[in-house]
Amino acid sequence: MSITTFVTVSVIKIVIAFAVLLSAVAYSVWLERKVVGHIQNRWGPSYVGPFGLLQPLADGLKFIFKEDLTPPHVYKPLYIAAPMLSLICAVTSIAVIPVGNWVDVAGLHIPLQITDLNIGLLVILGITSMGVYGVALAGWSSNNKYSLLGGLRASAQMVSYEISLGLSLIGVLIVSGSFSLRQIVDAQAGHFWGFIPRWNIFHGQEVAFFIYLMSAYAETNRVPFDLPEAETELVAGYHTEYSAMKFAMFFMAEYANMITVGCVATLLFLGGWHGPIFGPPLLQVILPVFWFVLKVFCFMLLYIWVRGTLPRFRYDQLMAFGWKFLFPLAVANLVVTAFIVAVRA
Amino acid sequence: MLHLALFSIFGAICVAGAVNLLIQRHPINSALSLIAVLASLAVEYLLLGAEFVAAVQVIVYAGAIMVLFVFTIMLLNAGEEERTPGSRVAILLGIPGMLVGSILVAWALLRYSGTGSVSVGALPGPPNTIAQLLFHEFLLPFEVTSVLILIAIMGAVVLASREETARPARKEQG
Asked: Could you read off the pLDDT of B2-46 as tens digits, one per residue?
């Protein structure tokens, strides 16, 4: 492939992935409002467009036209940089996420992924670990007690749960034997005894999936671990002093992170784009992408369902749960997985 | 060509970050400059074909350790650096001394080590090669290092808990 074709193909893929991710972010906000509304026996957004489907557009316009306030007491350079950092770190990880098989377009054999790296999973972990700074610096630079407390809580929580998150992924890595997300998914093709899909979640990684799920909720600061923005005690946590588009950037970063977490769960535990594939060639290209999107969608739905049903933890409960329960469990899972793999080899 | 250009750009960012680290007066700005230094070092590793080391550099140093730095600065609410006559003397003596020292080191390295270049990919870079080296050839040093880190952690726990026991026992609140 020549350099010009490579650049053209990459730019097209980046534009498509970015557009899809941002609209997915907008519509997961709509989905969340709608589903939580129905859980609480209300309608949710219903005025703008059919079923309130144009609500995200209206919200976006509102955010853009709102006055962009900068409180006088903030530390300006970091106050402005923090939301950008959050959003950049949240959307960059889409670059290594594969959404489907290879396609043949105009004589080119292209993977449905912006780039396939042999350290793909590590790249995602690296980018998400940099995302902590956005939240921490927002809390600090706002020069406000509530913001600082929210920022401190968020960074402490994200650092603590990152450990069990990472350990839960190592079990999968041992089973698959690769850091490349495409190879991890390829290793999950086929079935056990002809009918159970060979996904990692049915491959002895059930406990790892549970640990991942819990840590992911804490990493993305979602209910039941949304203490950084606990509105009953901290006003809005680290983004108390933010308004208009800067606030929207934090909001988008949160949802983009949820989608990334969903994608990683799908790729590592739920078999990626594997599913029943049939029909004409065009359908065979579309179906894997459809299965991938469906799995991520189910994961998002689970997130929203949990938000609609569970109350918030206390902070000491959160830390105790992370360090005294999840962390030892993750280590135990790692040791058992390594032992079984070593015995089989 | 592109490779060399990128390497020089990130090298320049790295040095600029390091200088900025020293110039900045507020600890949080210095910490952020250090993050920039560590992140651009990771890019340099990547350009040298050591992708695993680059990723670990970002996750461990730029991600985890520096978060703790920033966290501590935020928690202690550390203020701006104070300048005293002593620090002026340190600047006057330190900057020329450091320049002379680094020139000497660079000269010695160029003079006495081989100046031949290594092509990208000649040294171990992919994760599986690194794993082979760590868990086969260098297993003993690797394990000894982990014991060393464990001792450091235990030392930190002992130091942190001593204050608790030295404090007079509080009365139980009925």
From this structure: 888 888 899 999 999 988 888 888 888 888 899 999 999 998 888
Rounded to an integer, what distance in angstroms lies between the CA atom of residue A126 and that of residue B58? Answer: 6
Among B55, B58, B71, beta carbon nearest to A155:
B71
Picking from A221, A86, A212, A204, the residue whose alpha carbon sits closest to that of residue A141 is: A86
pLDDT of A316 higher than 70: yes
Alpha-carbon span B66 to B31, nearest angstrom: 7
Residue of chain A whose Cα is closest to the Cα of B35? A130
Q: Which amino acid is at A244?
A: A
> pLDDT per residue over B77-88, tens digit each?
777 777 777 778
Which chain B residues are Cβ-neighbours of A170 within 8 angstroms?
none
> Residue A310: pLDDT above 50?
yes
Q: Does residue B28 sit at the A interface (CB-CB below 8 Å)?
A: yes
| A202 Cβ under 8 Å from any chain B Cβ | no
Contact B51 A162 (CB under 8 A): no
Q: Domain residue spans in chain A?
A: 69-344
Best-predicted range by mean pLDDT (A116-120, A275-279, B66-70): B66-70
Asked if the ipTM is above 0.85, the reply is: no
Distance (Å, whole) CA A223 – CA A235: 16
Amino acid at A121: L
Residues in chain B: 174
Query: What's the CA dihedral at A54, A56, A61, A66 to 10 degrees?
Result: 140
CA distances from A2 to A9, A116, A117, B6 (A): 11, 18, 19, 21
CA distance B130 to A121: 16
* Residue of A88, A117, A155, A238 for testing the chain B interface, max B β-carbons within 10 Å: A155
Average pLDDT, chain A: 85
- Which residue, among A74, A129, A183, would best test binding to B if mutated, counting the most B CBs under 10 Å from its CB? A129
Q: What is the pTM of this model?
A: 0.84
- pLDDT for res B174: 46
